Amino acid sequence: MSASTEKSTLAPVRTGRYAEFALVVATVVGLAATAVHWAGLLVGGVLVGLVATSLSRAVVNGLTFGLVVLVAFAAWLLYEGGLETALQTGQIGLLTVAVAFVLPLAAAVAVRALV
Amino acid sequence: MHSEPWRVALSVVLVGALVASAALGGTFLSLAAPFSGDAYEGVDGGVGDGERIENPYGEATVTYDEYGVPHVDAENEEALYFAVGYVQARDRLFAMDLQRRLIAGELSSAVGERAVESDEFYRSLDFEGAAEASWESVRDTEAGPGVEAFSAGVNHYTDTQPLPPEFGMLGYEPDEWTPVDTLLIGKQISWTLSGNFADLRRETVQSRLGDDAAAELYPDALDHDSPNIRGGSDAEPYTPDGDISESVGGDAPVDGDAPVVGDDSSAAIGDDSQTAQSADFEGLYDWVQAYETDPGVGSNNWVVSGDLTESGSPLLANDPHLQLTVPALWYEMHLTTDEMNVRGVTFPGIPFAIIGQTDDVAWGVTNVGGDFTDQYTYETRDGEYLYDGEYRPFETTNETIEVADGEDRTITVRKTVHGPVIEREGTEVAVAWPGFSATNESLGVYQLNHAAEMSDVREALEIWDVPAQNIVAMDRSGETLYYPAGKYPIRRTGDEVVRGDQVFNGSANEGEWAGYEPYGQSSWDGFAPFDAIPHLDNPEYAATANQRVVDDPQFYVGTSMTFADPYRGERIYELLDERAESGTPMTPEDMKEIQRDVDSDRADAFTAYALSSTNASTGLSSAAREDAETLRGWNGSMRADSEAALVYTLWMEEFRNATFADEFGAQGLDEGYYPRDYVLQGFDEESDWYDDSRTQTVETRADIAAVAMNRTAERIDASGYETYGDYNRLDLNHPFGQAFLDFPERAMDGSPYTVFNFRTESQVGSSLRMVVSFENDSSMILPGGNSGNPWSPQYDDQLDMWADGEYRRMTLDSPGGDPDLVFVAEESS
């Protein structure tokens, strides 16, 4: 395939009128996958990377996705009464935060660099 | 595709990094990932509304109340116990698996190297073999099907539901649960309560400090006048005789001699038929010390007849003292079918309530603290030992101890006719303990769960064999009972009945236990008959706190080395006597007040000694003098906000050390050998023990008191402690040492010697407090919570209430509302 065909295939979700909607869908799908398995962080990263308009935008999308995951996670912990305990987990908690940012970031950039 | 090489390269690098981290760090990802991580297992509680589970035995429902106590109702007993297995796994699977591994000697395969020594000990004693023998005995009784259904329930949970977070964090999965595992948990608690090596300790002291010293330090009985039974007991008259109807192991009588009935004098306690040997067992005792019961640790219980209560209905109170653990040791549950209604506590892994009540009966337990173990030495040669006139081979098996992340070990487990052999530094002994045989206490407990009146309780107690426990019980009709039920071995050498407080020469057939077969089915024929056990039928009130059962028992029960100091028992009787004599009828609140009592009888005695330091020829530092003065006029109340209690506690430690360290230390004996505080209390003020053998001057009690007070002042200064609560801390930690799994630390009232019981050095204390009333609601409290799920609010919701001496209601009603779990009969396929 030629580069221009690729770009035009993804253009509607990157710069067209579906762009914002596509980002939301990517986030939701990624979040749902993350709820079930850590690979969901990669899925989310790939999807938000695909709809990014540029490589640096992919970085932003990846990190933002990670932030969304963490906020949703904290909200869930709060709802279940486990937030206080979670904040005491020390190294495990730090790992959680790191994983939530690093995996989507790497996936988003890796995908956007190629596609 | 973009063709710029740097983009491709970047992509490749990132993908490569992700793949690598997944491969190498996959466990970290699956541990800590948000939402899906193993560490977060259980955040959402795992309990669905009306979750429907297939139950091969029939229908059942489980409704949890606000404290996480499951109320299990079922159409038949097997369906009931299946559901019990399921919820115990749901709430406590990690603890169940850990306890099972501990007693089976399989801890190293889960936690690695640091558990190897423990595994060696437990494998050497082959508790698994004993549990197998017990299962053989129990499986065909009415308790058998329940145990099997329970196992099935545990396994159904493990097969279908997510595991608790600890398994993911440690990286292993639990094995299938079997009925033998349930019996194994029973062996674990039995050993914890009745397995001791006091005989090794005594012989070592005799050998190193002399017979006179040993006799003074370890008298047959402490000279207090507060045994459990203060007057006469209701036991049937009994004289243990030398008649051996069957010797150990079920063999024919020795050498074909006709059994001779021993005369009365040989049966009298105190008859010294000890052999002259006093061998040194220090190396061996050093190793096993960690695994024996700590006789200072005990429990409290008492029962009061309706004649003395406000309601006219009897009252019962129990607080067993055990290791305080995370999660709490006990698991509370309420079980109902059409025919039974029982509420109480058990150890996860056991389907029946060990302490609790039914509609019409209630019971509580404390440890008897008798002498239920003996050790035997042998003449040996070449893998054989001399017994009964001939050399026999040791029964040997090789056991492999798997070690996670380490090298597996092999040990050789050896047994003689008397039992398993333990060996350290060239010293070896065989160990006899009734629990190595098949035992039926689980059937006894099952029957208690179904008891409707006192005669049912007596029948159940006749079956209760190991560990011997001081049972107090009451029924709705008003009957009360105190019965230290259990199997009491009568030791015989030849045709003579002998005491058990010595190490026996197994090769000379000393100290035989007739009717005992380790790892087999014992007839118990040579043991004390049930009716001969000292007990009280329908006492006005009876209290036990692990001190000796009765003065002058008809058969050897134990010594001051196995029974506890009298301080708690005396105090409880003091309070009950006071209330009984006051004429004011007692209420459940009175029982709770007694359970909350923090006044130390031990402090009453020793405070005077501490104050004598102010007049000693040995001088006091000014800080020490100040500290000593805080004790003047102090009432012995062990409260967290008390400065005097702090000074007293530290001073007691220093006083004990200052008295004994010189003599014991010189012989290489540590404080594990020190005598009871009650013995120390009784020393004359100019006793030799107070003289420090390392100094020229002759010290008296006052001098040692001063030395101790000076050291106390130094410690208080160095530590920055201001009150007792700074020292007396509750600090309960999860086995992992991960802060978020631990219970919060806090100050505590109470001491090892007060009724409200807590000991900070070992974090042992009242592992539950229960007060049962048939007319009002009963009360219960646990030190922690009912759930083992660290994310559950019921993980530690009761901890502060327990520490503050509060209770919650315990009823035999079921909570309303929709059940949390619904078990449906399995569809036949």
TrEMBL record, chain A:
Native source organism of the sequence: Haloprofundus marisrubri
Domain of life: Archaea
Name the UniProt record assigns to this protein: Uncharacterized protein
Keywords assigned by UniProt, alphabetized: Membrane, Transmembrane, Transmembrane helix
Transmembrane regions: 21-52, 58-79, 91-114
From TrEMBL, chain B:
Thylakoid among keywords: no
Record Gene3D superfamilies: 1.10.1400.10, 2.30.120.10, Glutamine Phosphoribosylpyrophosphate, subunit 1, domain 1, Penicillin Amidohydrolase, domain 1
GO biological process: antibiotic biosynthetic process
Keywords on record: Hydrolase, Zymogen
Name under which the protein is recorded: Penicilin amidase
Native source species: Haloprofundus marisrubri
Organism superkingdom: Archaea
Signal peptide: none
Composition skew (Low complexity), residue ranges: 248-273
